[in-house]
Amino acid sequence: MKKIVLIGAGGHCKVIIDLIESLKEYEIFGVTDKKKQGTVLNYKIVGDDSKLKKIYESGIHYAFICVGAISDLSIRNSIYSKLKSIGFKLPVLIHKDSIISPYAHAEDGTCIMAGTVINAGAYIAENCIINTGSVVEHDCIVGDNTHISPNVSIGGGTRIGCNTHIGIGSSIVQGINIGNNVTIGAGAVVIGDIPDNVVSVGVPAKIIKVKK
Ligand SMILES: CC(C)(COP(=O)(O)OP(=O)(O)OC[C@H]1O[C@@H](n2cnc3c(N)ncnc32)[C@H](O)[C@@H]1OP(=O)(O)O)[C@@H](O)C(=O)NCCC(=O)NCCS
Asked: Does ligand 1 come within 6 angstroms of the Cβ of 168?
């Protein structure tokens, strides 16, 4: 079994632990967290992120980000760069109870949770969360460090940028473009293109804020 260290001891970490245990491919060494101490499920919090270099040097070469950031995806981005600069490998974690077309592809550091369907021709970039029960239809493109929340449906051929969060239970119609650094509110129905750096909510989705 390959040894792996997890970063971030919050709720999302528990779901990642479930996923990793279901794969029977990795042995979880422990979890790092910048504040918390104690344990997450059965695993020890071994210190903060300053320990990561030593952990790597001790022979643990796999890592996974368990910070389920919603409002600030830049946290996941900076941890990703740090892990890569130390030398860690970040695998793609695909829950065995998801349905992924052999013609779909996901890059390093991305997790695909239980109950998800990803259809042919879809491409998911690095460090994304494709959360529980979501559907990414054929030929969609999802950019780096984007979080697709639970129970989101994305129609075929839609492009979603980097550092974007698609809120829980929302529906995105086929063939549109959603920009970088966008937040789509919970339960939204997105029926047209969304530019970079905005928050958009409602049915149909309307822009309520431009981010600084
Ligand atoms: C969109 C969102 C990020 C906005 O959060 P916020 O910046 O704190 O905004 P506020 O709560 O101040 O709401 C601003 C306005 O938008 C409305 N609004 C917020 N979220 C909304 C939503 N999902 N649908 C419709 N209207 C919404 C509020 O009612 C408020 O309206 P008002 O100005 O008329 O009072 C948040 O409400 C949301 O939907 N988050 C998604 C959560 C999620 O997906 N979690 C998944 C966890 S895995």
From this structure: yes
Distance between CA atoms of residues 165 and 183, nearest Å = 5
Minimum CA distance residue for ligand 1 atom 14:
208
CA distance 179 to 160: 6
pTM of the model: 0.96
Which ligand 1 atom sits nearest the alpha carbon of residue 12? 48
Give residue-wise pLDDT tens across range 126-159: 999 999 999 999 999 999 999 999 999 999 999 9
Q: What is the DSSP string of the chain?
A: -EEEEEE--SHHHHHHHHHHHHHTSEEEEEEE-SS--SEETTEEEEE-GGGHHHHHHTT--EEEE----SS-THHHHHHHHHHHHHT-B---EE-TTSEE-TT-EE-TT-EE-TT-EE-TT-EE-TT-EE-TT-EE-TT-EE-TT-EE-TT-EE-TT-EE-SS-EEPTT-EE-TT-EE-SS-EEPTT-EE-S-B-SSEEEETTTTEEEEE--
